[in-house]
Amino acid sequence: MSLDRIMNEAISPWMKEHGPEEDIVLSSRVRLARNLKRYTFPAFLAEDGALKVLHELQGILQDEHVKIGKLQMIRVDELQPLQRRVLVEKHLISPDLAAAPFAGACLLSENEQISVMINEEDHIRIQCLFPGLQLKEALDLANSVDDLLESNVEYAFDEHLGYLTSCPTNVGTGLRASVMMHLPGLVLTGQMSRIVTAINKLGLVVRGIYGEGSDALGNIFQISNQTTLGKSENDIIEDLRSVVLQIIEQERASRDAIAKASGIRLEDKIYRSYGVLANCRLIESAEAASCLSDVRLGIDLGYIKHLSGNILTELMILTQPGILQQYAGFPLRPEERDQRRASLIRERLQFEENKNM
């Protein structure tokens, strides 16, 4: 695995795999926050200390005998701004790490399923990603990385509070689990605001595609736990999974209701969106996301049969501003990005049509 491959292949290998409930749950993610006991937390850590943390963790995670597989280190603070943006758009690093002033790094597995961020808000952020609804599998993989580190370093840990983190909301297990869900049925039936309110009361939070502060483009929502203290890791995972299964059931019921009530109007909406994507010469991110959501709904409902179901996830990433500019090889003005986005989508749809002729 090379940096060039990571930058030039927008779709991570793990995204090409199938997972449970993948018609609604696009991906599952588990993230563990950890800090080393003998170092100041990153917000107050000088550059020499941050470099020591980096080198210590690198030595452990890149040991040739490590059972989790080979991890490649990328020094984020040595990347160009556009390269950092690409890693954020691929969900491999956080915006906070992309802005790290020094000694920021991530260690990536070959399939980009494991990303260990170093010197972000905490010394260590272990992230594991899986397709579909696979929260338990993501937790098991994250714990294997965590166990490896904990057998070699001493974490900042309190017998009563648990793992100590820079942000008080992460104290305890340090676990943030989330699922990315495509919920056009609940949006179209006007139920999403009610769902969000109910979810918040259960100690969960609903965000956009890139987490806190981001918009829910293309009817894609990220649902995650808020509570990390007072619950075990397994309880957090099971509580989130239980809520997600209920949302899946309601989303499917909403889709069936729309299909029965709207009939030709829904089919018209889907094919109009397909027509826009297949013929546009300029398209902004928000419009592309909306049209892609309609097309994915059409695939799931059986209206569109010649496209693969993962086209929403694939094109949502491929058409992000940073990745478009990475492919171009130079900075693009907004209208140039809109033009390239339109061209890329047309070419991708044409490829699918030719493949299925």
TrEMBL record:
Signal peptide: none annotated. It catalyses: L-arginyl-[protein] + ATP = N(omega)-phospho-L-arginyl-[protein] + ADP + H(+). CDD domains: bacterial_phosphagen_kinase (cd07930). A motif (RDXXRA motif of the pArg binding pocket involved in allosteric regulation) lies at residues 337-342. It comes from the Bacteria. Keywords: Allosteric enzyme, ATP-binding, Kinase, Nucleotide-binding, Transferase. GO terms for molecular function: protein arginine kinase activity. ATP binds at residues 27-31, 91, 125, 176-180, 207-212. InterPro entries: Arg_Kinase, ATP-guanido_PTrfase, ATP-guanido_PTrfase_AS, ATP-guanido_PTrfase_cat, Gln_synth/guanido_kin_cat_dom. Its EC number is 2.7.14.1. Residues 24-254 form the Phosphagen kinase C-terminal domain. Appears to be allosterically activated by the binding of pArg-containing polypeptides to the pArg-binding pocket localized in the C-terminal domain of McsB. It is an enzyme of class 2 (transferase). Catalyzes the specific phosphorylation of arginine residues in a large number of proteins. Is part of the bacterial stress response system. Protein arginine phosphorylation has a physiologically important role and is involved in the regulation of many critical cellular processes, such as protein homeostasis, motility, competence, and stringent and stress responses, by regulating gene expression and protein activity. Belongs to the ATP:guanido phosphotransferase family. PANTHER family: ARGININE KINASE 1-RELATED (PTHR11547:SF38), ARGININE OR CREATINE KINASE (PTHR11547). This is Protein-arginine kinase. It comes from Ectobacillus antri.
